[in-house]
Amino acid sequence: MSDTPPTPSISPIAAPSAQTPGDAAPPGLLPAPMQRPLDKAGVSLALLATLGSVFMLHWASAVFIPVMLALIFSYALSPAVTRLQRLHIPRAIAAALLMATLGGCTGWTVYALSDDATQFVESLPSAAQKIRQAARAARNQPATTIDKVQMAATQLEQAAKEGGSGASTTARGVTRVQIERAQFNLKEYLWASMPSVAASVGLATVVLFLTFFLLAAGDSFRRKLVKLAGPTMARRKITVQALDEITDQIQRYLVVQVLLSATVGLATWLAYWLIGVEHAAVWGLLAFALNFIPYIGSLVVTGGSALVGFVQFGSVEMALLVAGVSLLIHTISGNLLTPWLTGRASRLNAVAVFVAVLAFGWLWGVWGLVVGVPILLMIKAVCDRVDGLKPLGEMLGT
User: How far is 310 from 319, CA to CA, in rounded Å?
Assistant: First the structure.
């Protein structure tokens, strides 16, 4: 029997067996991220859905435009209706009174400026003729046959006025012929464009009724949307937050736009009146209305006023002065007043706003230019509340 102690036997370490995909990972170890291949079918379906949505928006513009306009007007007028409702006035009656008051104020403004607006429209053909003559003279081009006939008619008219009746200088048996220039008739133009006028009146009527129904309904549609959001409390909470954000953004945007447009219109009227531009009140009203269209409205007012200033004063310096005053007013309102009146949360990226204006203008024409920014605000409010869409909301913001 040996006295040496027995050496302990060392068993070899077994190699870890390969795990099957269904086995769980060992404690303390994280599974390697799986690289999902690009789903071409999903991308194709998303592209087809986008193209289908754009086609639907363009095809059903007669339905979407009144709905969006009525929705925006209801957001703008809802606080006033709520205040009237607190005075124990039924909501439907309060909405009707408010819309009747706004309609009466708009009608009175149009009636008060109707004479100036008629004279302004009737002066457009002669202004266009003067601009063509000035452009042709600047290029040293010879006058056309129509211009020569019009010049001869003008000279004959002046000779007839200077010669009085012309009976002493006209030979017996010869009839004096006077060529009169055809003038622009606003009534005939409106009668010729009656289909488009009827379509505009129909659109205004539909928007009026939809706005009234939305104001009279109150929060009923809001409660229905929250109920349809889902059974869980988290989804309903996100829906309520998104609706509150949309309401706050739209109301803030509309208040800022009304204040800025009123300021631009009043400043344009006063500045043009001081310079001596004809129909300054009409230009102030145009500046107020076109200021609701981002970028494009200010360009239209500036370019149009420059042409009118050139026609009225007959000098390039006065045209540049009128255009410079208009550009200065819009620059101050856009770069100083807008950041001061608009909150940080409602600011949008300038590139996103410009692209939205172009896209909705292509889809819906002039009305798309008006509703493009409010729709973009709605999209941003939803994207900021949904986790999967937050990168898009970050791209739309400043």
Answer: 5
Residue 144: the pLDDT is 57
The per-residue b/e assignment along 355-365, b for 16 or more CB within 10 angstroms, e otherwise, is: ebbebbbebbe
Alpha helices in the chain (DSSP H): 40-59, 61-86, 91-112, 114-122, 124-138, 145-162, 186-192, 194-217, 220-228, 233-275, 280-290, 296-313, 316-332, 338-341, 350-364, 366-385, 390-396
Distance of CA 177 to the CA centre of its chain: 52
- Amino acid identity of residue 157, one-letter, is E
- Residue located via tokens 């909150």: 343
- The pair of structure tokens assigned to 383 is 């994207």
Quick count: other Cβ atoms within 10 Å of Cβ 370? 22
Spatial CA neighbour of 65 closest among 346, 385, 301, 363: 363
The values of phi and psi at residue 5, to 5°, are -70, 150
Domains of the chain, by residue range, sit at 63-218, 222-398
107, 241 in Cβ contact below 8 A? no
pLDDT (tens digit per residue) in 331-383:
888 777 766 666 554 567 778 888 888 888 888 888 888 888 888 888 888 88
* 0.70 surpassed by pTM: no
Amino acid identity at 59: W
Exposed e or buried b for every residue in 45-64, given b needs 16+ CB within 10 A?
A: eeeeeeeeeeeebeeeeeeb
DSSP string, 183-227: PP-HHHHHHHTHHHHHHHHHHHHHHHHHHHHHHHHTTHHHHHHHH
Report residue 26 CA to chain centroid gap.
59
pLDDT digits (tens, 9 = 90+) for 232-275: 787 788 788 888 888 888 888 888 888 888 989 999 999 999 98
Residue 121 has pLDDT above 70, yes or no: no
Residue with tokens 């986790």: 387
Using an 8 Å Cβ cutoff, are 77 and 207 in contact?
no
